[in-house]
Amino acid sequence: MSRLSVRKTYKLYIGGAFPRSESGRSYPVTSAKGEFLANASLASRKDARDAVVAARKAFPGWSGATAYNRGQILYRVAEMLEGRRAQFADELGGARRGALDQVDAAIDRLVWYAGWSDKIASVHGGANPVAGPYFNLSTPEPTGVVAVVAPDDPLLGLVSVIAPVIVTGNTCVVVASEPAPLPAITLAEVLATSDLPGGVVNILTGRRAELVPPLAAHMDVNGIDLTGVTDADLALSAEQAAAENLKRVARPVQEDWTADPGIGRMTRFLETKTVWHPIGI
Fold first, then answer.
1. Model confidence over 55-105: pLDDT tens digits?
2. Is 40 helix (H, G, I), strand (E, B) or coil?
3. Distance (Å, whole) CA 100 – CA 95
């Protein structure tokens, strides 16, 4: 007997749950050939605000976890992603376009950042020489809630902008690729089953032009990564709005996601705390 297949419903990922957009809207996602793939939720400003609330709620627990524990969780995400290679490859267009290689690169990128979790403090912090009887120690601390506009590289690029933000103790609200959002929501399913606390990563699908301005202006967002913004006017207006509460801003640049990422993305959303302590006391 023939049967109808159960089509997947792509929702948002906010606070560890998968709600539909509060507006009830969706938009069609098509392949590179123009073929219909699915309907994705069209997130609203209200969804963006809800995601910021969830990220702020998760921040104390996530930033207070040990760096080693955060690394373990990122490694667990990589394990779960490894187990769903075929599904991700299918959403990336199949083996004809080297999709499995893209999935493998994303897995390797997660493992790479997981390894840095308990080492970045040694590289980015340390003891400072001072002219006086004091110990002077600098240590990196997370900035807080970071809004991330993901690039159109739907998996490796996505992982490459999320992992360095959360491995250092920040929480984030991610605006997924507008033309290719499906792998982002499937990644959210991986995150939801990999010990990552709800709210650490929140993923919105929809129009960048609608979601970036409220996130840039939100007074409870501490930093914004504009990597995926391709509209120069939108990037400029977002940077101007971000200045209202002195957000840290990462400007959009063209990047080769297959290259060695370095530690720049980890240090971009870190603050440095310096402690003075008298010697001998």
1. 999 999 999 999 999 999 999 999 999 999 988 998 887 655 588 999 999
2. strand
3. 6
Task: Give just the sign of the alpha carbon dihedral 6, 76, 268, 247.
Answer: positive
Q: Kind of pairing, strands 26-30 and 270-278?
A: unpaired
Domain ranges of the chain: 38-278
Alpha helices (H) along 171-261: 182-192, 208-217, 232-242
Count Cβ atoms below 10 Å from residue 215 Cβ, excluding itself.
26
Give the count of beta carbons closer than 10 Å to the beta carbon of residue 177: 23
Three-class secondary structure of residue 138 per DSSP: strand
pTM above threshold 0.90: yes
38-278: in CATH 3.10.180.10 = no
Return the DSSP state at 249: E
What distance in Å separates the CA atoms of residue 84 and residue 39, rounded to the nearest whole number? 21
The most distant pair of C-alpha atoms in the chain lies apart, rounded to whole Å, by 84
Closest CA to 170 of 192, 148, 137: 148
Contact between residue 67 and residue 118 where contact means Cβ atoms under 8 Å apart:
yes
Identify the bridge partners of residue 166 per DSSP, sorted by sequence position: none
Task: Please return the burial class of 197, using the count of CB atoms within 10 Å of its CB with bins 0-12, 13-18 and 19+.
Answer: middle
Alpha-carbon radius of gyration of the chain: 20
CA 209/CA 26 separation, integer angstroms: 15
CA dist 16 and 50 (Å) reads 12
Q: Are the CB atoms for 166 and 109 separated by under 8 Å?
A: no
Nearest to 114 by CA among 167, 170, 190, 63: 167
